[in-house]
Automatic annotation (TrEMBL):
Belongs to the methyltransferase superfamily. L-isoaspartyl/D-aspartyl protein methyltransferase family. The active site is at residue 61. Keywords: Cytoplasm, Methyltransferase, S-adenosyl-L-methionine, Transferase. It comes from Magnetospirillum molischianum DSM 120. This is Protein-L-isoaspartate O-methyltransferase. It holds the Pfam family PCMT. The gene is pcm.
């Protein structure tokens, strides 16, 4: 095994220990070269189980969090998925092989351009990204089988609930924005209403409404 392969192997073993047991999710994470999504000063940590800065005050999530969110989302290969917060594009690259098509919204133009370039370079062709305020979702492409939000809000943005199919699932961090009291929740839309299950204490950057001034 090359040193690079053994780092990936070690990371996957760590994810399994933290509860990522889904073989498809582990295979997807194992195939995405995380070092493509990381800035040069942090390359030595690309395969460590840590969140890392990606510019504009944002971060790419810890691989364990990416693994547990992806697993909770229970994505099927015929599904249409919406991601809010493209960031580096890493979570999108992990989801891409698991679904039919992924739509991803980012509010920072430079992050979006870099993410699109990385996805192109890795020949990932079923992800479409756009600049926008993801709290409004992507109405032209709705409804979605699955929605994943990678920035924290105090409440679920109503537009996202509207754009989720009946029987759809959504994973997002909810809670105290900028604080430490956040939880990842899995929301199932059912005929009886919403079933909301918290599953992990986390710390995400905030979901910010509107676009930054350029
Ligand atoms: N999924 C990303 C994680 C990025 S961190 C990855 O794998 O790298 C969260 C991202 O959400 C940041 O890039 C931030 O700019 C973006 N974001 C925050 N609020 C947003 C909003 N209202 N609409 C779209 N993107 C948003």
């Amino acid at each position: 095994m090359s040193p690079a392969e053994s780092r990936v192997h070690r990371l996957l073993a760590e994810l399994r220990r933290h509860g990522v047991g889904d073989a498809r999710v582990l295979a997807a994470i194992g195939r995405v070269p995380r070092h493509h999504f990381i800035a040069p000063p942090f390359l030595d940590q690309a395969y460590e189980n840590v969140a890392l800065p990606i510019g504009r005050g944002q971060t790419v999530s810890q691989p364990m969090v990416v693994g547990l969110m992806t697993q909770a989302l229970a994505v099927g290969e015929r599904m249409k998925v919406l991601e809010i917060g493209t960031g580096s594009g890493y979570q999108a690259a992990v989801l891409a092989p698991l679904c039919r098509r992924l739509y991803s919204v980012e509010r920072h133009r430079p992050l979006l351009s870099e993410a699109e370039a990385r996805l192109r370079h890795l020949r990932i062709h079923n992800v479409t990204c756009r600049l926008g305020d993801g709290s409004r979702g992507w109405p032209e492409q709705a409804p979605f089988d699955r929605i994943i939000v990678t920035a924290a809000a105090p409440d679920v943005p109503p537009a996202l609930l509207e754009q989720l199919k009946p029987d759809g699932l959504m994973v997002l961090p909810l809670g105290d924005v900028g604080g430490i009291d956040q939880e990842l929740v899995l929301i199932a839309k059912t005929p009886e209403g919403l079933d909301i299950r918290p599953f992990l204490a986390v710390r995400f950057v905030p979901l910010v409404e509107g676009l930054p001034e350029e």
